[in-house]
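Support request from a user on the community tier.

User writes: "When I paste my C-alpha cells into the form, the page sometimes reloads and wipes my input. The last time it worked, I copied everything first. Here is what I submitted, just in case something in the input itself triggers the reload:"
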C-alpha cells in the first residue's frame, strides 16, 4: 500500500511539473516571441493556439495541485495542528 501511494504521489508530482513547464513555455512564447495584433500574419493563429494550450494546461495544473493536496492532506493537517493553526 505504501509503495502504491508513493508511486501515485510521484506521478502526480511529475505531472504537475510537466504542466508547470508547459505553462511557462506557452506563456513566455506568447508574451515575448509572438507578435500581437494582426501584424504577424500566420503567427496570429499560432498565438491563439498557444493561448488555448496555456488555458487548458492551467486548468489541468490546478486539478493536479488539488489532487496533490488531497494526497498530502494528513501531512498538511498534522503540521497545521503542530503550529497551532488548527485546533487539536
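"...and here is what came back when it finally went through:"
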Amino acid at each position: 500500500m505504501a509503495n502504491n501511494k508513493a508511486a501515485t504521489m510521484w506521478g502526480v508530482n511529475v505531472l504537475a511539473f510537466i504542466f508547470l513547464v508547459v505553462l511557462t513555455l506557452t506563456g513566455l512564447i506568447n508574451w515575448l516571441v509572438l507578435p500581437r495584433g494582426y501584424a504577424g500574419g500566420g503567427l496570429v493563429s499560432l498565438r491563439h493556439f498557444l493561448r488555448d494550450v496555456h488555458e487548458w494546461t492551467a486548468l489541468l495544473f490546478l486539478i493536479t495541485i488539488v489532487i496533490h493536496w488531497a494526497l498530502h492532506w494528513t501531512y498538511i493537517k498534522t503540521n497545521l495542528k503542530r503550529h497551532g493553526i488548527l485546533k487539536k
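Agent notes: The reload is a front-end session timeout and is unrelated to the input. The two ends are 27 Å apart (CA to CA). The chain has a mean pLDDT of 90. Escalated to web team.
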